[in-house]
Specification:
Blueprint lengths: L1 E6 L13 E6 L2 E5 L5 H7 L9 E3 L11 H10 L7 E5 L3 H11 L1 H10 L9 E5 L5 E4 L2 E7 L9 E6 L4 E4 L7 H7 L4 E7 L1 H4 L5 H4 L8 H11 L3 E8 L7 H9 L5 E3 L5 E4 L1
Parallel strand pairs: 3-4, 4-5, 5-6, 10-11, 11-12, 12-13
Antiparallel strand pairs: 1-2, 1-14, 2-3, 7-8, 8-9, 9-10
Helix pairs in contact: 5-8, 8-9
Bound molecules: zinc ion (2 copies).
Length: 273
Amino acid sequence: MQITLLGTGNPIPDPRRGGPATLVRAAGATVLIDCGRGVLQRMMGAGAMPGMLSALLITHLHSDHLTDLNDVITMHWVMSPVQQTLRIYGPPRTAEIVTATLAALAPDIQYRLDHHNDLTSGPQIEVVEVVPGDEFTIGAVSVKVGATDHRPVEPTVAFRLDDGTHSVVLGGDGIPCDGLHELCLGADAYVQTVIRDDLVKLVPSQRFQDILDYHSTVEQAAQTATRAGVTTLVLTHYVPAIASGAEDEWRALAAAHFSGNIVLGDDLTSVEL
Ligand SMILES: [Zn+2]
Ligand SMILES: [Zn+2]
């Protein structure tokens, strides 16, 4: 199982970091979790073509996790040599977003259908709305859905992918909670979006201060990893962006609460389990 951080940024545009998105390749499946800004550029950087996607999983409907949904839908459609269905799993209201995105793409879809004789229908999308406790499979990978706490943003979910040998939890955004803990129990890897509350508190902006109550800090992510007995903690969605040369400082904050393997870094940082 290979986990690649495609985009390690946050909602604020960053010249060096894409928006939230992670790729998991396991047992022949290529699974994209969230599709933030620049996701397809990073997927190509990771050697994964849009048409290779086995499924897209969405943790929640905050825009930074969805900005490039239109691009994923369009490129999966036009870059697939044969027509194939894109399966999208996400919390309730995901179907609403997909329907609205397809409506926004209607002119483009018509242009391409008119121009390319071998395209006989528009994007084939199958949306499955999921809630905590649900289970499904993507090829040989089994997926469990867990609850997260990113309130007032609701609904939100986390996913645990298991290929029979290894397992990884994609925690999405949120603070530690029982649902996330249960999903993480005994997992090999746990990917968590994190903030540095010590740095965020220095920013003289109420809108920035507002994010403190619904994101895990680096320390909280490390504590969740320790409590759940995971082997590898993967940090992403850095708020603020990790300053160049400051990786070790972030790593030390996590290491104070977690003695396992800690992975963080730039876009395309990858870990093999
Ligand atoms: Zn969010
Ligand atoms: Zn986010």
